[in-house]
Amino acid sequence: MSQQISKKRKFVADGLFYAELNALLTNELAEEGYSGVEVRVTPNKTAIIIRATRAKNVLGYKGRRIRELTAVVQQRFNFPEDQVELFAERVNNRGLCAIAQAESLRYKLLGGLAVRRACYGVLRYIMENEAKGCELIVSGKLRAQRAKAMKFRDGYMIKAGDSVKHYVDSAVRHVMLRQGVLGIKVSIMLPHDPAGKIGPSIAQADVISIIEPKEEETLRPPTTGYAVSTEEKPQQPQQQQQPQQPLPVQ
User: Fold this and answer.
1) pLDDT mean for each 10 residues of the chain (250 residues)
2) 110-117: Cβ within 8 A, 24+ apart
């Protein structure tokens, strides 16, 4: 029998489970383009969906890698036998995924690429994938011993309001370099998509669309109904105009 716990403790326990699971998968699947995890709890089984840019590498040869991860999760979180199952889902557009782009920038900096060149390359790639805006922040000891922060922006980006929760995708990563630790923050402004595939289907609160008015049709007199008079008006006889006589010449 499952132990009864209060709602407050349940929410805390769910948050701890998600945070630890996310940290585990971030360390294990960083090279496979790990882009987030979703936990779906059903009465029979708990399904964990791993989103990654290279889903085949997450599965491994004949599903070996995914089975190893399933065994690790089951043993760590004390799941009963056959009560947890892991799935791999491919990210449709990795250019609009902040986690994938933060990992990409992290590996570029670990490879020794200059900060400006790496950031402008990631910025251009994000904007080419139909993003409305993007912002990259890299802070730490970039070149000299003095730490500083560099910001790279392009496009349209919102910072406040309820729309930020739906439209802005953010991710933070740390780069362990020889001279110190660099911090990376990637923020991507997603486009509006009524279908909800590449962006949120919820319209922005401050975006107003003006509908063009329809062309007005000219009103014509009715040909049927009570408004039409059935009585024919009598035609007045036309008066014959008499020819004007010429004026007498004095």
Assistant:
1) 78 90 86 84 86 84 86 86 84 85 90 90 90 92 88 90 88 90 92 83 83 82 65 61 67
2) 110/175, 110/177, 115/142, 115/143, 115/150, 116/150
Q: Is the pTM of this model over 0.85?
A: no
Provide the β-strand partners of residue 85.
Answer: 47
Task: Tell me the three-class secondary structure of the chain, residue by residue.
Answer: CCCCCCHHHHHHHHHHHHHHHHHHHHHHCCCCCEEEEEEEECCCCEEEEEEECCHHHHHCHHHHHHHHHHHHHHHHCCCCCCCEEEEEEECCCHHHCHHHHHHHHHHHHHCCCCHHHHHHHHHHHHHHCCCCEEEEEEEECCCCCCCEEEEEEEECCCCCCCHHHHHEEEEEEEEECCCCEEEEEEEEECCCCCCCCCCCCCCCCCCCCCCCCCCCCCCCCCCCCCCCCCCCCCCCCCCCCCCCCCCCCC
Quick one: which of 166, 187, 169, 154 has its CA closest to 51? 169
Burial label for 129, CB within 10 Å (0-12, 13-18, 19+), is: middle
- Retrieve residue 69's tokens: 């991860």
Confirm if 16 and 53 have CB atoms less than 8 A apart.
Answer: no
- Return the amino acid letter for 216: E
pLDDT at 137: 94
Q: Residue 190 in contact with residue 197, Cβ under 8 Å?
A: no
